[in-house]
Amino acid sequence: MGTPDVSVVVAVYNTMPYLTKCLNSLLRQSIGRDRMEIVAVDDGSTDGSGRELDRFAKLHPETVKVVHQANSGGPAAPSNRGLELATGRYVFFIGADDYLGDEALERLVAAADEYGSDVVLGKTVGVNSRNIHQAVFARNETDLDLFDSALPWALSNTKLFRRELIERHGLRYPEDMPVGSDQPFTLEACYRANRISVLADYRFYHAVRRLNAHNITYRSRHEERLRCAEQLVEFVARLIEPGKQRDAVLIRHFAWEIARLLEDDFLGLDRAAQERLVAGIRTLADRYLTDDIRDRLEIEARLRISTAQRGTVDDLLAVIRQDAEEGVPPTIVDGDRWYAGYPGFRDARLEMPDRWFDVSDTAADWLARMDAVDLAWETGPDGSRGLTVTAHTPRRNLASLTSGPIGLAAGDVVGSTLETTRDADGTTVKARFRVDQLLAGVGVGGTLCTVRSQLTAFGTTGSSPLRMPTRPTAPRMVFRRGVRFFVITPTTSHRGQLVIAIAPVTPRRVMAQLRRRLPKGGK
User: Fold this and answer.
1) In Å, how far are 119, 258, 277, 350 from 308, measured between CA atoms?
2) Facing residues of 42 across strands?
3) Which residues are within 8 A (CB) of 306 and not within 5 positions of it... i.e. 6 or more apart?
4) Has this prediction a pTM greater than 0.70?
5) Spatial distance between the Cα atoms of 329 and 324, rounded to a whole number of angstroms
6) First and final C-alpha spacing in the chain
């Protein structure tokens, strides 16, 4: 066999039974087995993944290479080992629980050859309601600018890389990062690349949310995630000179990795952990949080990070509790400016400028902020089933400030507004989402819909995700569309926002549910 066009590197740790589907999706690639190799590194699996790899290697010895090693504690070491063994002109990384569309590799390699691209992204979609940032896949792009695009929000390693670029710059994964180790690798590859291309006209990569576990990022401890966030930010600072280009990358890390450390679950940490997190975030903010980055952060992230930088743990707890427990903050009107009435506003001790609280330029979005206060499955007058969502805002004068209806939407589905009422406590909006509308257009992999309020005010359209201070009481329900069944789960995201998860009902899902419900031993 000559030099393969592409080496597919698979870092494997306890991913059965998903691993089988992953490997089968690689072996049926239209590019042909004579043009590819699969390099699978078993990182000390204990669930039979290693045996499954050996089975595939025995069946396809010309295509599948398998290496077994002791568990390293993360995906970086097996990914590096796979790179050492790769011989293809290009390298593609795939998660061992994910799978590819049949034409994925052929299309990616053809594009890289035609355009002379060093990095090619193929459209990625979520399976089992996994949420994938889609902005970078808006359209095909022959030559994508790292600093003037959504690419910093899509720094996973699930891309095609020219191996010559990787070896020329000695690119490897930092093995001391249990979380996010693919981001420095991917960022530097994109930074060094002569050309980056995006293909958005085919479903190349199917990213699977496991039914029996969560992604390692979500399971990791706060302090471990802080350490990894610090390493990510320091890496960017070493790679890119201060200025707009560095800010274009760092905005992602402040808005995502760092802001996520200050989500509502911060309230449940012990005091010592809270103190250490605040100290670490304060240091990062002092060094790298520029005015440009701060101004581009959403109001919640901006004020939580800024309060961690300027205030005490108690100051930060007050800000978080405002969202998590007390609901929509008051609006402070001063002349022609609107300010978010969070704790700390005009507190001389904190020295936080008014502009950090200013929401005047996004007043319609600010008006749209509501809390979800009730959910219920109901049958409509026409006999159709639907989910009724009740939202509330303390603004009694909301209707007088808007120039049209106030409604709710779940993803692309606009709910039917049942009523909008004003009382002494504010304004309540109730809307119903019919099940058939929620299921219309949902693919076999499912979807995740954020529920948002929407209105028109001051000549612009405002929209805001509904926060839900308490966990939804409406149960998950199973519904049929054609020959398929889907489970619809009202729940909250890590940001405390109301989301509706729609996932297919498969034999694997049924078994996973049964295993969770049965006592140990299956009795």
Assistant:
1) 37, 11, 9, 10
2) 12, 68
3) 285, 294, 352, 356
4) yes
5) 11
6) 52
pLDDT tens, 75-110?
999 999 999 999 999 999 999 999 999 999 999 999
Q: Is the pLDDT of residue 152 over 50?
A: yes
Rg (CA), the chain: 24
Q: What is the DSSP string of 484-507?
A: EEEEEEEEE-TTSBEEEEEEE--H
Sequential DSSP letters for 340-389: E--TTTT-TTTT--GGGTB-GGGHHHHHT--EEEEEEEEE-TTS-EEEEE
Please write the tens of the pLDDT for every residue from 413-430.
Answer: 999 999 999 988 899 999
Backbone dihedral region for residue 492 (phi beyond 0: left; psi -120 to 50: alpha; all else: beta): beta
DSSP 85-139: H--SSEEEEEETT-EE-TTHHHHHHHHHHHHT-SEEEE-EEEETT-----GGGSS
CB neighbours of residue 112 within 10 Å: 23
Q: What is the token pair recorded at 182?
A: 């693919």
- pLDDT > 60? residue 502: yes
CA distance 197 to 159: 10
Q: Show the 3-state SS of 20-51.
A: HHHHHHHHCCCCCHHHEEEEEEEECCCCCHHH
Helices and strands (H, E) in the chain, number of each type: 18, 23
d(CA 180, CA 269): 22
Nearest by Cα to 392 from 371, 407, 420:
371
Q: Which two tokens stand for residue 277?
A: 């997190």
Mean residue pLDDT across the chain: 92
Task: State how far Cα 167 lies from the chain centre.
Answer: 30
Q: What is the pLDDT of residues 205-260, one digit of tens each?
A: 999 987 654 444 444 589 999 999 999 999 999 999 999 999 999 999 999 999 99
